[in-house]
Write a structure and sequence with these properties.
The complex is a heterodimer of chains A (278) and B (390). By secondary structure, chain A is mostly helical. Chain A is 72% helix and 0% strand. Chain B has 390 residues and is α/β, with parallel strands linked by helices. Chain B contains 12 helices and 13 strands. The chains are: A mainly alpha (278), B alpha/beta (390).
């Protein structure tokens, strides 16, 4: 429309130089930033607080009931009782994992974050590390307290060192990895309610569906769902033998399977985060 | 320095930005204008590496944004004032951004003071007003003391004091040798703030030039001349003399003459020579708004229509007096008022109003002049100087 006119005189080639020294940003900076973010929202306190209450409350109640009934567990230790608190607590971890990233999409904060740190992989890595360590530490402490109380209250076999490790470090790792899977789904779905729904479906639906598979033709599928659903894996984590028939996972295998799934989901999250427009 | 070369962005079948090339230089405030949906925000997002261009590239200081070693120290941006987590306090929000770039926490308190939010620093940003949100966004942009600054609609929702502050801030930042790129719809604000303008419409570059040049290239500076009322002979005599002297004369509906192509003293001399008295001789310089409207007229996507409330009115019932209105004669529309909301802009080269034209090749009688545009309706305020001149 307008005839292009040459700009009269280009301004002198000076530029502004900040007095604050500039250095390269690295993962450590992103970790500090993500720690500030996760500790400065109420959702973290609410979800983790609820998780602690559920694990303590249910864990101690179950132990009290088992102690009241007495006996019957003489050849097993009391540690598997921890499962009953873990299952509801995992819903809190899922919520926090999803919110860690999807709340940034929901509020638009993600654009501010990625403008301040154009390396998207660094942002996701920092989020994953901070979230994993936070959930792992909190769950480890609570699981240890609950396990100690259960062992003290219930009259059962003395747990071995391996059983202790699975019931504390294993349980904490399982929760934290489940949270990472939720975070990956949150990054893929980018919508809090949608991602939480997906994750609760993943957590509970296979087991619920398997309960209603009465047809003989579905027997095989039912068995697979029973064996590999997330709650079954949690039970398997506490036992040295496969709890659901032959060939199922037992002990640490349950954690490894979940870690594999979370790694695939995180890989997808990295790929999409790097290629998608924000 | 921001440099875009052949920048193109398509969303499916829709092309948001097409083949956009421009440079934003340091040391001046560059305004970025365009109608709604013209691709301003998409362009800004591509500059910041949030959106990947379909074709072309944009660099900041020679590097694509996503390859900058420490982006907040080189580029500060305010894209969307509400792009914050509402549950976080202003200070923690800024602290998390500062930590991303290794900026010390002292700097957070410093910028909170600069934008005037120190008293609400510990409050959750959910409760902030739009203006406070803008201040928080500006604080985030200033955090890294960057050399390049981008602001998308920075004065939205600010109080008059805040608008003045932003205006002075932009100028100060530019005077320090930084590159300042500001988009806005407030033309009066842009006229006061920007030195250079980049205008896009429908995703394409319409104009890239200094503000002064932009106004004179896209608008009509003219002189309004009024002869004594009721003396039509005097008026005709004067317009004859003016046309002879190389001016272009256009009668206005209220009897005044709009003269272009002649400087004011010359018009006065000619009138004196022809022995015509003048009641008014006033200069009219177009505003940036007018120039902008003229340029982007053809590139506006979203245009409002009259709200006729057709479905809310009771249907007229002719047989029942007392209900509905009696048939009324339609008032005849004035013939010389164009029914269009705005007049079609003549191409700048053929604009009969344009002042700095070489002398017109042939004098044209005013009545028979083939005008590409109808006369301006008298209800419209031609410029912001009109009222003062009367």
């Amino acid at each position: 429309m307008t005839a292009p006119t040459p700009t009269p005189v280009p301004p002198p080639p000076y530029g502004y130089v900040s007095p604050i020294p500039v250095r390269r940003a690295h993962l450590g900076d992103a970790l500090a930033s993500e720690w500030t973010k996760i500790r400065s929202v109420r959702a973290t306190m609410w979800t983790l607080g609820t998780m602690i209450l559920l694990m303590l409350g249910i864990g101690l109640s179950v132990a009290a009931i088992a102690a009241g009934e007495g006996g019957g567990m003489s050849e097993e230790s009391a540690l598997p009782l921890g499962f009953f608190g873990m299952l509801p607590a995992s819903i809190c971890v899922i919520t926090l994992g999803v919110l860690t990233i999807s709340s940034e999409y929901g509020t638009g904060m993600i654009r501010t974050t990625l403008t301040a740190c154009p390396s998207r992989s660094r942002v996701l890595t920092a989020k994953a590390i901070v979230f994993f360590l936070l959930v792992f530490t909190v769950t480890l402490v609570v699981a240890f307290v609950v396990a100690t109380a259960q062992v003290a209250m219930v009259d059962a076999a003395e747990p071995t060192g391996a059983e202790w490790a699975r019931a504390t470090v294993g349980a904490a790792g399982f929760m934290a990895v489940l949270g990472l899977l939720s975070m990956a789904v949150g990054a893929l779905v980018r919508h809090s309610a949608g991602a939480i729904t997906v994750m609760i479906g993943v957590l509970l639906l296979p087991l619920v569906a398997a309960l209603f598979m009465f047809a003989p033709a579905l027997k095989g599928l039912q068995e697979v769902l029973f064996t590999y659903s997330v709650p079954s894996q949690m039970i398997a984590l506490y036992s040295a033998q496969p709890p659901f028939g032959e060939g199922g996972p037992a002990g640490w295998e349950a954690l490894f399977i979940l870690t594999g799934i979370a790694a695939v989901a995180l890989g997808g999250a990295y790929a999409l985060l790097n290629s998608r427009d924000v | 320095m921001i440099e875009a070369v052949g920048l193109t962005k398509r969303y499916g079948a829709k092309t948001a930005v097409y083949n956009l090339s421009f440079q934003v230089r340091p040391g001046v405030v560059t305004g970025f204008l365009g109608p709604n949906g013209s691709g301003k925000s998409t362009t800004m997002r591509m500059i910041l590496g949030l959106d990947q261009p379909t074709a072309g590239r944009v660099t900041i200081g020679g590097h694509p944004f996503r390859q900058l070693p420490n982006a907040p120290r080189q580029v500060g941006a305010l894209l969307d004032a509400k792009a914050v987590h509402g549950g976080r306090s202003a200070r923690n929000h800024l602290l998390s951004l500062a930590q991303l770039a290794g900026i010390p926490a002292r700097r957070v308190d410093e910028v909170l003071g600069v934008v005037g939010l120190q008293d609400v620093a510990r409050r959750r940003s959910k409760g902030f007003s739009l203006g406070m949100g803008q201040r928080l966004g500006i604080a985030a942009a200033l955090l890294g003391d960057p050399q390049v600054l981008l602001f998308d609609e920075p004065v939205n929702g600010l109080d008059p004091e805040g608008i003045l502050w932003v205006r002075n801030l932009m100028k100060k930042l530019a005077s320090e040798g930084r590159t300042v790129f500001v988009s806005s719809h407030l033309m009066s604000e842009m006229a006061l703030t920007a030195d250079h303008l980049i205008v896009i419409g429908r995703g394409q570059l319409l104009s890239d030039m200094p503000v002064k040049q932009f106004i004179s290239a896209n608008s009509a500076d003219f002189a309004r001349v009024r002869t004594p009322e009721g003396e039509a002979a005097q008026r005709d005599k004067l317009s004859g003399v003016l046309v002879e002297a190389g001016g272009q004369v256009l009668p206005e509906p209220d009897g005044a003459l709009r003269v272009t192509g002649l400087p004011l003293p010359r018009i006065s001399d000619l009138a004196h020579g022809a022995d015509v008295r003048l009641w008014e001789l006033s200069p009219h310089q177009a505003s940036l708004e007018e120039a902008y409207m003229r340029l982007t007229q053809g590139a506006v996507d979203y245009r409002s229509t009259d709200d006729k409330l057709a479905h809310l009115q009771a249907p007229p019932q002719p047989g029942q007096p007392g209900y509905g209105l009696p048939p009324q004669p339609q008032p005849p529309l004035p013939a010389d008022v164009p029914q269009q909301g705005w007049y079609a802009p003549p191409p700048p080269g053929e604009n009969p109003y344009a002042a700095p034209q070489p002398p017109a090749p042939a004098p044209q009688p005013p009545a028979a002049a083939p005008q590409p545009s109808p006369p301006r309706p008298s209800i419209q305020k031609p410029s912001d100087t009109t009222e003062d001149a009367r």
